[in-house]
Amino acid sequence: MVRKILAFFALFVIGIAIFTGCSVGRQVDNSGVVTITLSGWSNLLEKQFLQKVIDGFEAENPGIKVRYDAIADQYMDVLKTRLIGETAADVFYLDALEAPGLISPGVLEPLNGYINKEFDLADFEPKLLDAFKSNNTIYGLPKDFSTLVLFYDKQAFAEAGLSQTPRTWDELREYARKLTRDRNGDGKIDRYGLGILPELARLAYVTEAFGGKLVDAEGMATFASTESLQGLQLIVDQYRLDKSASQPSDVGASSGSEIFGQGKAAMVIEGPWLISYLDDTFPNLKYATAEVPTIDGKNGTMAYTVAYVMNKKSQHKAAAWKLIAYLTGKEGMKAWTSGGFALPTRKSVARQLGYEKRQLYSPFIAGASYATIWQAGEYLPLILNNFNNQFISAMLGEQPLASAMQKAQITANKEIQLAQ
């Protein structure tokens, strides 16, 4: 840890020398208008929608102009390079996964001193806000979130005589067997009961279902524990023993969204982005959503969230805070999340937009209170690569699950030790 922080600041010093004369300060024109920069994803739909929200901010704050900087590829690599060179934006997106790695070197502006009572911090879903805290200091405010829910094909359910959704994982396995279909009777399955994505970003909550932990207090990987294996074995057994589950690549699909939309899986555990995809690409598909079935009597799902954070080197912090406060305030968040492709992190906004009463969206909102946040210290990127490679190997039957996870854990921890 110490070596990593010192290395980061060494690069910072080098960056200052190289980029002498460059600055994150944005120009102030002759009329006194301050221009600040906001960096985010290079997504055309998101950029267009966000620009409308920014237009609302500028109308309320005529002394501030916002330039949206869409980073096309390798977002975090570009962002870190700009932070080192002191050319990063005043405000930028930060995924919960990457937050610990930027909080520890001290490149983010603490926000506690800017937040007043009127901002209503208690309105945020606590777990989502906590993803951007360290030692009770807030470094980011979550702009939106997504959880995972169970999508199911209503026609497939009717054909199989299923009138209710599965409430437990045992029921899910039973349903998946009934929904798996060999239409031609030639031994070739044309529809699986469940489409699965065998990756840690989708399965972290499963490792915790029986009391397992992804990492320990020091940030070292612990996913090979007996408790974690008990949850992961459910996925392996459903794939190998029941033969009622399929990953997208098995059936020529490229994603969980596609395997479901094409009817090659009757159920899939996915996020709210699937709704717009299905409406646009498969408008005739009749589907519904439900909360992810419980495992060992416990609710579980994943939550993914992104915050607006302020660059500590910004020369226009007052303006930067006004932008963050607007975008994550009730008015700005309502405008941003009204389209349905991302969900509001403020509980009052979710209620105002009626998400809790909308059948497709209510399971997503319900999951926010118990979801596992996709975050586990600053070394999670090292952990997930090792996990994914070995877990797929176990799922394909190339090695026992326990052996695969032990290999992954040992390798991940060696890499973590080298990075500290």
Describe the structure in your own words.
The protein has 420 residues and is α/β, with parallel strands linked by helices. The chain has two domains: 2-147 and 304-373, 3-Layer(aba) Sandwich (D-Maltodextrin-Binding Protein, domain 2); 149-302 and 378-419, D-Maltodextrin-Binding Protein, domain 2. It is built from 17 helices and 13 strands. The strands form three sheets. Strands 1, 2, 3, 6, 12 and 13 form a six-stranded mixed sheet that branches. It has a five-stranded mixed sheet with strand order 9-8-10-7-11. Strands 4-5 form a two-stranded antiparallel sheet. A hairpin with a 2-residue loop joins strand 4 and strand 5. Helix 16 runs antiparallel to helix 17 (401-419). The protein is globular and about 75 Å long. Mean pLDDT is 92; it is low at 1-26.
| The CATH architecture of the largest domain | 3-Layer(aba) Sandwich
Rg computed from alpha carbons, rounded to a whole number of angstroms: 23 Å
Helical fraction? 40-55%
Cα end-to-end separation: 4 Å
Can you give the mean pLDDT? Answer: 92
Order of helices and strands: HEHEHEHHEEEEHHEHHEHEHEEHHHHEHH
Main location: other
Keywords: Signal, Sugar transport, Transport
Protein name: Sugar transporter
Family: Belongs to the bacterial solute-binding protein 1 family.
